């Protein structure tokens, strides 16, 4: 039964209501918060991935992904405002659709957070390896990329993942001014790129505009295939929606922050895409038989040996600037990515550990996962386990495959959130909603449809991993979480008490 073991919202909110946060964020602060969270590996690295899948039409893919993300964001914001507690979409689903689907969402969020952290680490390694090589300290090719990408073990991606994990274990966090500084660096790097690359664009480089077409389900190519990958470039907007408890007039300011941050980032991404395509060209690479080579595959890595094409670059924006004769700006862009992307890894590993922490507290994962370190006061056990997993993902797999796998979990979670919003509007219409999704019966169905459209256009590998991972999760839930759930135990205790009372 789909609504089996639903955790009441009042029970979830009981602890959250004991402490209230000061409402002090306005639309400008929310917009900047969203921009800082969104801009990351997607634009600095996945530009090359999108070019191999869609060619110059990757610019259209940026717009499609932004529209789907905006629809999902508006639905996400309503539940985030109603349930301002840890656990993300897992907690929301538990309150609306029940424990079984909540477990499935929480299990899928491993793909959104842990695998995404690995993708960002791989993206970071591409830029840091480029800087090291230019400085004369380049690593051997075997240690620069994983085995699926022409190397053997991505050493720098592994190292940064473990360093971030150590920081999270000891409780080191980013201060507000450091975060603002890193955001400023990222934005400055993109502005400089656009100033140099956009005027240098050659319209001939945009022909043919859609060399791979619109794509086919599970094909992972074409405009829709690129949009499914580029969706990764926008994930992070939930930083806006989860700040609803600290927002002045959230019904007005949350949608402004969401839409404005997505709009600003979309404009940036369009300009970057236009500059990259126009200045360096972005035609895909085909094999000898004229078949498109799969992005992130060993075949593409082999075809890219000694190639100067954009689709082959591990640091595409710096690559374009080098080709335009602007090495100093290229070094700045590389340095900006190297400085700013570790903060994204930190937030993703942090988010993953907190979801596992809540699932453990609910009894769905071993109790050890929610143990808190006596000195550092952090969930050190699950942080270490997560960090080791992320470091291995990053060391062995290319960024494109990791991003697609991550998107599969994210899109599934967003579908569940949009469905949950509609169910709650019917079942609990009178519940307080600090933010209400506008035109909910239009926005939420479109969000579900858009997420499904991108989901089915992910690569076959990504979808296979998703369903295999979901099946493993089903086994784990059946063998462990089903019988140890705290909600199940409380329900049994309540039933026993009622039976005893009836007998008396």
UniProtKB/TrEMBL annotation:
Membrane topology, from the record: Multi-pass membrane protein
InterPro entries on file: AA/rel_permease1
Protein name: Amino acid permease
Positions of transmembrane segments: 28-46, 58-77, 89-110, 117-139, 151-170, 177-198, 218-237, 258-277, 329-351, 381-403, 409-427, 439-456, 462-482
Cell compartments where the protein resides: Membrane
Keyword Repressor annotated: no
GO CC terms, sorted: membrane
Coiled-coil annotated residue ranges, if any: none
A GO molecular-function descriptor: amino acid transmembrane transporter activity
Keywords: Membrane, Transmembrane, Transmembrane helix, Transport
């Amino acid at each position: 039964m789909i609504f089996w073991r639903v955790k009441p919202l009042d029970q979830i909110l009981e602890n959250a209501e004991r402490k209230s946060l000061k409402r002090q964020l306005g639309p400008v602060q929310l917009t900047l918060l969203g921009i800082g969270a969104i801009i990351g590996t997607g634009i600095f690295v996945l530009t090359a991935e999108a070019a191999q899948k869609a060619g110059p039409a990757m610019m259209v893919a940026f717009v499609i992904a932004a529209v789907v993300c905006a629809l999902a964001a508006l639905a996400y914001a309503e539940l985030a405002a109603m349930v301002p507690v840890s656990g993300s979409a897992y907690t929301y689903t538990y309150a609306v659709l029940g424990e079984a689907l909540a477990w499935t969402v929480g299990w899928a969020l491993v793909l959104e957070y842990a695998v995404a952290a690995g993708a960002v680490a791989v993206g970071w390694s591409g830029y840091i390896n480029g800087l090291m090589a230019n400085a004369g300290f380049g690593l051997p090719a075997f240690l620069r990329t994983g085995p699926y990408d022409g190397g053997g073990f991505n050493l720098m991606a592994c190292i940064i993942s473990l360093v971030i994990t150590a920081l999270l274990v000891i409780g080191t966090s980013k201060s507000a001014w450091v975060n603002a500084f890193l955001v400023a660096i990222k934005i400055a790097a993109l502005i400089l790129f656009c100033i140099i690359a956009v005027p240098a664009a050659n319209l001939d480089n945009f022909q043919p505009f859609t060399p791979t077409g619109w794509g086919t389900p599970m094909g992972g190519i074409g405009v829709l295939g690129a949009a499914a990958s580029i969706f990764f470039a926008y994930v992070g907007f939930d930083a806006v929606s989860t700040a609803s408890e600290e927002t002045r007039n959230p019904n007005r300011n949350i949608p402004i922050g969401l839409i404005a941050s997505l709009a600003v980032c979309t404009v940036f991404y369009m300009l970057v895409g236009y500059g990259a395509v126009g200045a360096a060209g972005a035609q895909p690479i085909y094999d000898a038989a004229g078949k498109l080579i799969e992005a992130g595959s060993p075949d593409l890595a082999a075809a890219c040996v000694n190639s100067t094409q954009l689709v082959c670059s591990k640091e595409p924006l710096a690559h374009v600037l080098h080709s335009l004769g602007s090495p100093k700006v290229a070094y700045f862009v590389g340095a900006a990515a190297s400085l700013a992307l570790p903060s994204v890894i930190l937030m993703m590993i942090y988010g993953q550990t907190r979801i596992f922490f809540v699932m453990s507290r609910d009894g769905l994962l071993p109790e050890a996962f929610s143990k808190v370190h006596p000195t550092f006061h952090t969930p050190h056990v699950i942080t270490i386990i997560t960090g080791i997993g992320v470091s291995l993902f990053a060391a062995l797999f290319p960024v494109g495959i990791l991003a697609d796998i991550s998107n599969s979990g994210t899109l599934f979670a967003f579908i569940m959130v949009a469905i949950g919003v509609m169910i709650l509007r019917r079942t609990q219409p009178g519940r307080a909603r600090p933010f209400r999704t506008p035109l909910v019966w239009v926005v939420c169905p479109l969000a579900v449809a858009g997420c499904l459209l991108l989901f089915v256009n992910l690569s076959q590998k990504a979808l296979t991993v998703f369903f295999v991972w979901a099946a493993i999760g089903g086994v784990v839930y059946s063998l462990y979480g089903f019988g140890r759930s705290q909600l199940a135990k409380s329900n049994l205790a309540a039933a026993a008490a009622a039976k005893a009372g009836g007998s008396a």
